[in-house]
Amino acid sequence: MRNKELRDLNLDELRERHLQYKEELFNLRFQSAIGQLQNTSRIREVKRTIARILTIAGEKEREADRSVVRG
């Protein structure tokens, strides 16, 4: 997913996507361990997407906290 697409999601949707990608990463690692993984670069892509999701979720949480404090 692109950053723009992720930034358009709210926190709940980001958490849901995070769980989906973690499950996909688990499955990819399992496939790799038993020698059935065709596209090994997908593991790297999924890890980076998870990192993007966590980064954007953290930014949104801090932004929400700031608005509560200022508000």
Automatic annotation (TrEMBL):
Q: Which GO terms describe its molecular function?
A: structural constituent of ribosome
GO CC terms of this entry: cytosolic large ribosomal subunit
Pfam families recorded = Ribosomal_L29
Which InterPro entries does the protein's record reference?
Ribosomal_protein_uL29 (IPR050063), Ribosomal_uL29 (IPR001854), Ribosomal_uL29_CS (IPR018254), Ribosomal_uL29_sf (IPR036049)
Q: Where are the transmembrane segments?
A: none
SUPFAM superfamilies this protein is in?
Ribosomal protein L29 (L29p)
Kindly state which keywords UniProt assigns to this record, in alphabetical order: Ribonucleoprotein, Ribosomal protein
Task: Determine the domain of life of the protein's source.
Answer: Bacteria
Query: Matching PROSITE patterns, A to Z?
Result: RIBOSOMAL_L29
**What Gene Ontology biological process does one annotation of this record name?**
translation
Signal peptide segment: none
Return the similarity comment.
Belongs to the universal ribosomal protein uL29 family.
Q: Name the chain's protein.
A: Large ribosomal subunit protein uL29
